Amino acid sequence: MALAKRPLRVDVVIFAIRDKTLQVLLWKRAEAPFRGAWSLPGGFVGKDEPIEDAARRVLEEETGFTEEVYLEQLYTFAHPKMDPRGELVSVSYYAVATTSRESPDGTFHAARRAPSLAFHHDDVLRRGIHRLRTKAEYSTVPLRFLDEPFTLSDVQAVYEVLLDRNLDKRNFRRKMLALDVLEETQEKRRTGAHRPAQLYRLSSRRTYLLKERGILFPF
Amino acid sequence: MALAKRPLRVDVVIFAIRDKTLQVLLWKRAEAPFRGAWSLPGGFVGKDEPIEDAARRVLEEETGFTEEVYLEQLYTFAHPKMDPRGELVSVSYYAVATTSRESPDGTFHAARRAPSLAFHHDDVLRRGIHRLRTKAEYSTVPLRFLDEPFTLSDVQAVYEVLLDRNLDKRNFRRKMLALDVLEETQEKRRTGAHRPAQLYRLSSRRTYLLKERGILFPF
């Protein structure tokens, strides 16, 4: 069989939690096809460029995020009719940005009420939300949404947004501390008339899978 | 940037459980590069061919499996130095075959003691084993290893192989039946002097995620 060759792209779902809502970074397309439509940030992979480098490049160059951001491959799409410009391969990634990150070119939108997206990007976004929600059930990936230092209430708020339900405060705190993934800082934060809250940062020895610590789910 | 185009491949990790061991189907390469080395079955994706169809084609044409086999996309590799024939994109899948399936061209090997593989296939296999093991912790994918009809002991044996530990029989049976993913058949199987064992098949309404039924892990 003659080898069919295709251009290779990366498309990146950049999530953040803002205003107690899961948000996703979108761009308004300035050019055809789908001119004026919203889409995920992305770009073509150069010759001799490893695909992971291309994903990191899109994340860093085009959104202005330069610090370490959690990035994970999501799914690969290669349907002949996917792009009116011709056959291509789109490898999607998702990234977890902290709340304080801003993008020079894009706009954050509520992920579950996002506008209809160009190309196959609705599918990519749907898979990204599903993956992230699943990871919230069994991994510490959600902690990557937090700007350091943070309180245990901040951590609980992240899990509540992702799982879309309220969690029991005492249970959550007990289990989260038992995971041994948080480190106490020397500081506390005072909010209103409340008792000052202990501030934490991520431990460098944080585990990825909650069950490695024998924690049963759901919280 | 000029668009770099690459050939697109699929490579498939075909798992089965045989002799109480997780096994993987391998081929001995007849041609360069890596002539004589073991590799995963795979092939190039044709022009206008959706990638999922290509993966299913490799699974069906080249292994002789024609019936419905569980197939899931695993990971995409696109490193410039991956293949001596030049840059390409390899999208890997894994498949769950039942014990009775035979392959005309390949040989099953113990997955955790497989020989060193050609190209980047060691990486693919390692990711496949990891994904399958993770799914055994929270999904019903492992049931797809079973030829129907099967006993509850058969089911337990599959989970024990994947999780690599012994499970308590009473607990396992209680939780597995509570999942409501198995259907009793009219038959029983008699083995030696034991009481005849009830035979089951997969329910058509089987859920994918165990936690949808509120089952806590580990078993």
The oligomerization state is: homodimer
- What is the global morphology of chain A? elongated
As a whole number of angstroms, the C-alpha radius of gyration of chain A is 19 Å
What structural class should be given to the helix and strand makeup of chain A? alpha+beta
Q: What share of residues are in beta strands of chain A? A: 25-35%
Q: What letter string, H or E per element, gives the SSE order of chain A?
A: EEEEHEEEHHHEE
In whole angstroms, the N-to-C terminal distance of chain A is 53 Å
Regions of chain A with pLDDT < 50 over 5+ consecutive residues?
A: 211-219
Per CATH, the superfamily of the largest domain in chain A is Nucleoside Triphosphate Pyrophosphohydrolase
Estimate percent helicity of chain A.
10-25%
CATH class of the largest domain in chain A: Alpha Beta
Q: What is the number of helices of chain A?
A: 4
